[in-house]
Design a protein that fits this description.
With about 60 residues, the protein is mainly α. Helix content is about 45%, strand content about 10%. It has 3 helices and 2 strands. Strands 1-2 form a two-stranded antiparallel sheet. Strand 1 (about 35) and strand 2 form a beta hairpin. Helix 1 crosses helix 2.
Length: about 60
């Protein structure tokens, strides 16, 4: 099992501000794990956000 990331660690992985992460959690736009009263994130979630947001290169003739 991989280590769960805090809000600050998750934000750092994506290059976002922690406030942006908290806002997206509140709006249920990001998958998260609740551990007691704490919010944590799977590293795979950050990887998926990056993968889904990657725009492929256009091949020009």
């Amino acid at each position: 099992m991989s280590k769960l990331l805090t809000t600050e660690e998750f934000a750092h992985e994506l290059g976002w501000k922690p406030a942006t992460i908290r806002n997206k959690v509140w709006r249920r736009e990001i998958e998260f794990v609740r551990v007691g009263r704490s919010i944590r994130f799977k590293p795979e979630t950050a990887e998926a956000i990056i993968r889904n947001g990657t725009v492929p290169v256009l091949k020009r003739k």
